[in-house]
Structures are given as C-alpha cells and as structure tokens.
C-alpha cells in the first residue's frame, strides 16, 4: 500500500470516527422526530393535534415557541394514566387495609362511609362521592410513618390483582400515555402528575411506572408530623386531611407544587376541568386534552353517568372550546403495555 | 504542496476536529473535576469534606455510591444562600408593603406586630419571633392574585436597595454557595431550596438567581383559592397561613414537596436543625453542613444571641456529631459575586 493510500485510509477512518461521533450525539429527540414518537396511536386528528402542538412550541423559529423552563405538562392519573374501574385502585387498597385493621376501629361499624366499606358495599361507598372516598382512603392510611406506609403499598401492589384482568394494578397503565409522556419529556417538557389520589400512595410506584420523579407528583395529602428520637427521624401520617387535590383544588395544587401554569394539561373527568381551564388561561400557547373512555371491550366505556371518573361538564366544555378529545376505542392501537405485540 | 502534504494537512485538520469534538462533548463535570469546582472556597477541611463526599457518592465503584435519583440536596435560603441582616430581606419587602397599604388596614395600628412595623420599630418587630415575622410577611402579601404578587415583588427587587451595601437585595447572594449548587447540579444532584421564607416570594427571583427551578423551591405559604371567570383563571392569595416551613416544619415540607430524604442538607440556623437531623437519619450516606457567620467585616458575625438566624443548638449538635461547619471568614475567598475580581 502506498503512503498516499495509507493516508487516504487514515482519512476515511477518521471520517468514520467523526460521523460515528455525530451519530452518538444524535439525541432521542431527533430519532423520534424521524420515526414515530407515538407508535400506539392511530393516525388521525388526535395524534396530529398532539404532534402539531409539540412541534410548534419547540421550534424556535415558530411564533408559538415556548421556552424550555415554561414547558410544564400536567397529567391526571386515575382513568388518565391508568384505569379506574370498577373503582379507583387506591380505593381497592384502602378497602383491603380497612378489612385488615377494622378490629382497631370499632367506630367504623356505625359511621359512613366506613360502615359500607367494611360491609363490602361498594355501590353505597361510591354514593359518598370523591370526598367520601378520600376520607376512606385517608382514614386507612394513618397511624404509621411514611416509611411504613411505603412498605404496605409496595407489599399490596406485589400481592393484589385487578379483578377483571387478574394482573397487578400497576400494570394497568396506558401504553399510549406512556408514549405521550416520553414524547413530551424528550421535547424538554417537565411532566407532572396532578391527581386527586393520595400523593404518598402515588409516589411509591409512579416514579418507576411513568418515569416521573417523586417530586413531580402532586396529589391529595394527609397532614404529617416530624418525630425525632435519638437520631431516628420519621414523618408520621396524621388522620387529618391536609389538602384535596381535586376540581378547583388542582390549580391550587399546581400553584403550590409547580408554581408555573401548565401549557399542556391532560385529564379524563370533570375533576380535571379546572386544571384544563387553568392551562387554557395561559398567556402562552397551551394544549388541553381529555381522554374519553369509549372502549368497553378493551377497557371500559363511560362518561356522563359514571360515579367514578364522570365526564359531563368537561366533555361539553371541550367540544365548545375545541379542546382535543381522545376517543380511546379509535385513537389507540393498544390500551395496556401487555397488549403490545412482542 | 505535494498530494502527501495536502493529505497530511487534512489528517491534522481532522484530528483537530475530532479533538475539538471531544472537548465540546466533555461535560462540565469532567472540566470541574480536573480544575477546581469551588474556586471561591479556600483550601482546608471544609472544602475537602464537600469534595470527598461528592466524590464518594458519585463513584459507582465506591461502597458509598448513591443512585442519581436519590441525590437530593436541600438548602436553606436566608443567611445560607443570601444574607439575612440587618433583618430578613423578605421582611424589608413586607415593611415596604405595609407602609404602602397601611391606610387600607386601620386595625394594624393597634395590633402587634403590625403596629411596631408601621412605627418602623424593627427591634420590637423582631421580638415576635419567626412566627410573628411570618404573620407580618403573610399579612402584607394578601388580597391579590399570584400574578399581581409576582409583579409587586419584581418591581420591589428592581427599585429597593440594601441599606448597608446600597445594592439590590438579590445581588447579595453568596458566590461560594452558587459554586456549591453548581457543583452538586453538575454531579446530578437535584438541588432544592427549603426555606422558612415565603414560597411565592422566593419563586419570583430564585430560579434565575440560583439556577433552581420554581418547582424545586419549598417554603412557607398562604392558603390560596382558584377563581375562574369566563376564561380568566387566577390563583388568589388568602390571608390565612397554609404552612410554616421552619424547624420541624422543614422535614414535613421536604416530605410534602420532595418525598425523598435528602443526602445533603445545608443550613445556617437552629431553624434548619430538624432538616439536618432528617438528612442525618438517611440510611444512605449523607452530608450535613452549617454556615457559621464569622465575618463581621465582609458580611456579619452572629450566632447564639442573634434574633435573626440564631445558631445555638445547631452549633452544639454539629460539633457533637461531626457535621461540617463553614467558617465564613476563613473558608470563603469572597462572599458576594460582585467581589469577584474581573
């Protein structure tokens, strides 16, 4: 091989190194743009609306560009990131706990909604509304430290199964929403969960399930107290409601934990309406999206008449204001991750 | 130029490109390790203790390695990231507001600590303790939306000046602490402010001043309410205290907003003691650090007898438990950014 050829070879090798370098530099963002960031979503106006919004707010040359620090996205959890039927999964946890600890609380036998819960009368439990459910949830979570609570939830998730799908509850998360979260995160959105559910319950499993850090989870809470004894420091959960992160509480919770107004808000029930209104009032471009449960076969179909996850006023307002509404049956190729073809 | 020389030149150029590529790829982390990540800190046991801790918890081969998701660092603000003398800067803001709005609140003339505030009797104001100060701070922040409040704070920061340094208050932040925050962030720590001060006050300016996102700021708060009217959505600040993030409130605030126990906790007063105890009780390696104000010439010297930022029990406990104590006078080359040599 001549010296020229050797040098040429070296040049080619160096060019390969440089181009390899470039390809490892290519972020997921670029890859996602080129292929399909939402593979479990059918083509159509819903998917297009999402892609169009994210494209315009992340393009510095677009008049609708939004700075990275303002790309706040908020997601309801129950019925929006995971299922909520036949009733809220945290309620299933609470009922199991109430059964396990009923003997320590004789007063529950004569007070609603505890009485109905012990009797297993879910239909009656649900008539006490979301506040009643929260009471039940909260009451079954007290008298322990946050560490003890975490252990109880972890144990419950590992051992209990959803009655219809016979699978652990935290596997009933929505594959298309996981892709949406990932797509937003890849585009430098900070994604937050803003749930009516208990903040401590969510934080046990949601970081791993959704790739959302514990400190980006907002929810309802009990009051807690700090206890210190000889180097041992714990947070104890008191049996007093601190904050209910539902309806008009959601914008308050967002202000408390996030501070900025979201530019992207995703929910599925009337409990999310104020959160969507709050995002819609942003002086930056914003995107409001409702998940409409229309799929009785693969998941559930419910809206205006449902006790759990009622979507009535929200649906009207979404249609009136042109917010995006996901039609689960037609917009989603699969519902749960376990339905993905291997 | 011969073809060989031309090709050699091309090779050299490509090598330069490759090496340039490498140097732009090199993260700040690597640069910081090689040079000095804490240039405003004098060499000594304090600086060494910080570097040693960060080095060991970020080294996957070290038995004290801590996963990125658990690298939570919490910082007090007043007297820890910026000065707090002659009295809390937010109190200066509150007093200015109280003067500006006193005519709307005739009841303040006969009720403490408002009376003392209107009379400009700071010494008496301070005798009402941190709770009294918070009352004053909170009372002067109400009857407006959060957006209106943000504008008032922004305006105040732009126009008011610290009496000793004759500079805007938010320029009196500590250069060595900025470097410490940056060093931790570079090493994949999530840095949080955990302050007794008002969360809404802090969030107006702290994101820009410290490079800490608004949602990583924890502080005391007023209750708020969501108001919606025909597409206009606001959060209104009520004149009722929601949460006081001081002393035993700090671990509660950390649980509420961050969820995880910190592995790095930094404070300067007895109000931070429980936060440091909380971090010290972490089952992962943790680092507790107190800033001791020992520099009457460049800043202030105070500890056990001070009304503002008293450090008494905390100093004893730090010494007893071997926590790191910063000696401001001897450990810091400069105090404020404006003292840096250009």
UniProtKB/TrEMBL annotation, chains A, B:
SUPFAM superfamilies: HAD-like (SSF56784)
Domain of life: Bacteria
InterPro entries: HAD-like_sf, HAD_sf
Pfam families, sorted: HAD
Protein name, UniProt field: Haloacid dehalogenase
């Amino acid at each position: 091989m001549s010296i020229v050829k050797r040098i040429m070879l070296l040049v080619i090798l160096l060019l390969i190194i440089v181009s390899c370098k470039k390809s490892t530099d290519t972020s997921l963002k670029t890859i996602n743009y080129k292929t399909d960031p939402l593979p479990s979503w059918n083509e159509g106006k819903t998917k297009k609306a999402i892609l169009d919004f994210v494209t315009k707010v992340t393009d510095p040359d677009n008049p609708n560009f939004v700075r990275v620090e303002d790309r706040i996205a908020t997601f309801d959890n129950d019925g929006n990131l995971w299922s909520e039927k036949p009733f809220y999964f945290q309620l299933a946890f609470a009922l199991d706990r109430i059964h396990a600890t009923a003997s320590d609380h004789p007063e529950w036998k004569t007070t609603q909604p505890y009485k109905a819960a012990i009797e297993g009368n879910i239909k009656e439990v649900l008539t006490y509304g979301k506040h009643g459910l929260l009471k039940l949830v909260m009451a079954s979570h007290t008298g322990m430290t946050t560490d003890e609570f975490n252990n109880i939830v972890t144990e419950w998730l590992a051992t209990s199964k959803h009655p219809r799908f016979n699978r652990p509850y935290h596997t009933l998360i929505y594959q298309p929403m996981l892709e949406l979260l990932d797509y937003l995160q890849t585009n430098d959105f900070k994604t937050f969960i803003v749930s009516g559910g208990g903040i401590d319950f969510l934080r046990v499993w949601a970081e791993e399930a959704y790739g959302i850090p514990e400190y980006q989870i907002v929810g309802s809470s009990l009051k807690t107290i700090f206890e210190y004894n000889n180097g041992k420091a714990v947070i104890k959960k008191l049996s007093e409601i601190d904050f209910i992160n539902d309806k008009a509480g959601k914008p308050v919770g967002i202000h408390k934990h996030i501070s900025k107004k979201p530019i992207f808000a995703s929910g599925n029930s009337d409990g999310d309406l104020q959160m969507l209104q709050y995002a819609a009032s942003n002086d930056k471009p914003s995107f409001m999206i409702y998940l409409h449960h229309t799929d009785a076969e693969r998941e559930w179909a419910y809206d205006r008449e449902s006790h759990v996850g009622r979507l009535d006023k929200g649906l009207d307002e979404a249609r009136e204001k042109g917010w995006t509404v996901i039609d689960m049956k037609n917009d989603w190729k699969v519902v749960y991750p376990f339905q993905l073809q291997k």
